[in-house]
């Protein structure tokens, strides 16, 4: 698919994250104003709350759904309404749109640089998966040796655990280095101390846009996913190593999970669908994909020290996943677990086959034994205080891109 | 402490769960009426929503907090308001209260037998701990042998994992036997089938009544807990065995968690405070209890087959826990994890030292090798379709008890 041209010139630049083909959903404020729902186009944010209140663009003719600062009520309306809304907004923003309409849009929009961005939706619950084969193999090799790298269930189940929704924050929120129980292999007892192995995990988050009760098919799960964000699942490796047996990660993953501020809709990603890899071990029927349900999304991570310039420390692609978000969601419902609008599913760390494709510092520095060299000098095994981590993603079209905006966080020193 | 006498005779019976000393908070409806907040007293439910609307008893002079069918907004007001409200209601219900007041209460109350009970609060997030030493030892012995029964971190950390809030249901809700991936030790591959080892876990749930951001002390955590419920963490042991490594239980615990319908306040339990056991291994400072923060609560489980009478299959006590809910909550905040009003913390399965004190069928039948004999005939290793499981708890005072009401669930056959 080619670029859809907008009358807003900034949306037509080939390296713009937010062309007319994208129209991602976020929440913004300007100065001390109230938080409002917005849609990104070029270098502007369309005030969707304002358009609704003015009667110029309504998702639901009966009720306001954008009068609260999150997109959950809009999601409740379902896929047909999502699609209609997007089509109507596309028509208003497309080259050749009525000039009076253009004036309305300009009135009900702001320069992106003037706006602060907030959480685009209320997270109901947060689940983090472990569906990157290169990541699971790398971590398994470090922890259990190459022979036992992949757990026996891994090729059968999209392994996941429940995370902590209250810790999900929007890009730009500072992250305080956590304390926790830490015990070195040779220590007699644990101590309570700041994490010395604080790390990132590069992931894509899928947002559940329709509730379900009982097992749903992979096809239904795919339709229930509203959109996607780039996600950084901050992880304290030293806390994790001591706590995670036998019931899994807990406080090591509860400090913060940062998401990019714009929900890129599943509809905007249609041209970039791709298939999960061929299986050497067949999947059970309830996990079989009826079509391509993964996406070709280019990803990278930049690390910027407090004093210094950015080094891109990894480049990878969402297409590396072994399980799609649709498969993860179908599995999530397999026990009868009710899912709700606003549930967030982390893909698991997205590592590629090569060293420079790895999605965490644990892997990039091989457990701290092979520190990375930064472009501005110095090395990194794990994140240091003052470092800013920036995760970026986009799907590349023909002369345009569908971008996610930056997912960024600066690490502050541990308290006291 | 002795019984506080009420002018409502049914509240003064020594075996009544809901004397004036208790006053637990729930949500009820009568017929097709709206859901309302209520307080249990004797054989009646006081309509707290109605008392607030009539201006007869207000928790907050400025705003209605009981006009929605959950106690979360009330919890937001904080411990001083909780205490004031309870004192005012106690005065209205105490022997000798003004007769006009008594008339108001009768007008704004219903017979408990006429009411349906609903979820008493909105669960923000659900965390399940593993803090029963006998339980952890029993399960560890079955899975890893007696030598390695207790994981190395267990005496240092209140081990827990995040559960699934959307699956928490109120007593009386039927529970459908889950499907899941199951793989026997000798099977070449897993299959997708109904769980054949569906089980209960007898627990106490603590309800967080105040939000926090960053590490809080055990003393603060204790003050932040609004109240307690009896909790059944339904568990599919066969699904759990195959899925739980390396990231912990997931779908095995996502079918349902049943709670008793009445929130017994921390204040009502003050006379029953007791200490966690002496430690052979000292705890880190952030987990040290400044006083008795556990409770003496007698617990039992009855199993009633579809055709047959109830067998009490276990009797135990909350005082068996190694970690209190206050210690669990303090640990939960240690990484900086934000906690919110309505967070629910399961204690972990409460098993006592003897076989007949065990809090799960897995333990009672020792992994299915020693089936229980039921009073009405037949045996049980795990829960069968049509079985009703009833968990009960009360704190025993001098001539009265503070009871939780039944936490019950009937298991329906797997779908299709």
Features:
about 425 residues; alpha+beta; SH3 type barrels; eight-stranded mixed sheet; six-stranded mixed sheet; 9 helices; 27 strands
Kindly summarize this structure in a few lines.
The structure is a homodimer of 416-residue chains. The first copy, chain A, has 416 residues and is of the alpha+beta class. Chain A has helices at residues 48-53, 72-76, 79-93, 99-107, 133-144, 218-224, 237-243, 325-332, 361-364; strands at residues 25-30, 36-41, 44-47, 109-111, 115-118, 126-129, 160-162, 168-170, 175-176, 179-182, 191-194, 198-199, 202-208, 225-233, 235-236, 257-259, 264-265, 273-274, 294-295, 298-304, 311-317, 344-346, 372-373, 379-380, 388-396, 401-403, 407-412.
Would you give an account of this structure?
The first copy, chain A, has 416 residues and is α+β, with helices and mostly antiparallel strands. The first copy, chain A, has 2 domains: 110 residues, SH3 type barrels (Roll); 287 residues, Fumarylacetoacetate hydrolase, domain 2 (Alpha-Beta Complex). Chain A is 18% helix and 27% strand. Chain A is built from 9 helices and 27 strands. In chain A, strands 6, 7, 8, 13, 14, 16, 17 and 22 form an 8-stranded mixed beta sheet that branches. In chain A, strands 9, 20, 21, 25, 26 and 27 form a 6-stranded mixed beta sheet that branches. In chain A, helix 6 packs across helix 8. Chain A is globular. Chains A and B meet through strand 7, strand 10 and helix 7 of A and strand 7, strand 10 and helix 7 of B. Chains A, B: Keywords: Calcium, Hydrolase, Magnesium, Metal-binding, Phenylalanine catabolism, Tyrosine catabolism. Chains A, B: It is an enzyme of class 3 (hydrolase). Chains A, B: InterPro entries: Fumarylacetoacetase, Fumarylacetoacetase-like_C, Fumarylacetoacetase_C_sf, Fumarylacetoacetase_N, Fumarylacetoacetase_N_sf. Chains A, B: It holds the Pfam family FAA_hydrolase_N.
């Amino acid at each position: 698919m080619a670029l859809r041209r907008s009358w807003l010139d900034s949306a037509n630049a080939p390296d713009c994250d937010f062309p007319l083909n994208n129209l991602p959903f976020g929440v913004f404020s300007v100065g001390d104003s109230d938080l409002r729902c917005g849609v990104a186009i070029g270098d502007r944010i369309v005030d969707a709350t304002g358009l609704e209140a003015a009667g110029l663009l309504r998702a639901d003719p009966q009720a306001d759904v954008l009068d609260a600062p999150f997109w959950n009520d809009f999601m409740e309306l379902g896929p047909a309404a999502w699609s209609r809304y997007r089509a109507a907004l596309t028509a208003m923003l497309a080259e050749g749109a009525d000039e009076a309409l253009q004036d309305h849009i300009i009135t009900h929009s702001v320069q992106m640089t003037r706006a602060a961005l907030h959480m685009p939706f209320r997270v109901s619950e947060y689940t983090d998966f472990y569906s990157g084969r290169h990541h699971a193999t790398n971590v398994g090799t470090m922890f259990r040796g190459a022979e036992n790298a992949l757990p026996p269930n891994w090729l059968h189940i999209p392994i996941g655990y429940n995370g902590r929704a209250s810790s999900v924050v929007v890009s730009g929120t500072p992250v305080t280095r956590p304390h926790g129980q830490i015990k070195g292999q040779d220590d007699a007892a644990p101590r309570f101390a700041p994490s010395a192995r604080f790390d990132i995990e590069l992931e894509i988050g899928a947002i559940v846009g329709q509730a379900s009760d009982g097992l749903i098919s992979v096809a239904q799960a795919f339709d229930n996913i509203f959109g996607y964000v780039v996600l950084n699942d901050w992880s304290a490796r030293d806390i994790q190593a001591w706590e995670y047996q036998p019931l899994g990660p807990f406080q090591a993953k509860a400090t913060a999970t940062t998401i990019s501020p714009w929900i890129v809709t599943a509809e905007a990603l249609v041209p970039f669908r791709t298939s999960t890899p061929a299986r050497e071990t067949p999947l059970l029927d309830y996990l079989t994909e009826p079509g391509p349900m993964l996406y070709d999304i280019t990803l990278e991570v930049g690390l910027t020290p407090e004093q210094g310039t950015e080094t891109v420390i990894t480049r990878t692609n969402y297409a590396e996943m072994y399980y799609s978000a649709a498969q993860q969601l179908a599995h999530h419902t397999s026990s009868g677990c009710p899912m709700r609008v606003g549930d967030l599913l982390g893909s698991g760390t997205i590592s590629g086959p090569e060293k420079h494709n790895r999605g965490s510092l644990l892997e990039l520095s091989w457990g701290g034994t092979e520190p990375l060299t930064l472009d501005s000098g110095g090395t990194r095994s794990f994140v240091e205080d003052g470092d800013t981590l920036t995760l970026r993603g986009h799907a590349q079209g023909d002369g345009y891109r569908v971008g996610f905006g930056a997912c960024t966080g600066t690490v502050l020193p541990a308290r006291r």
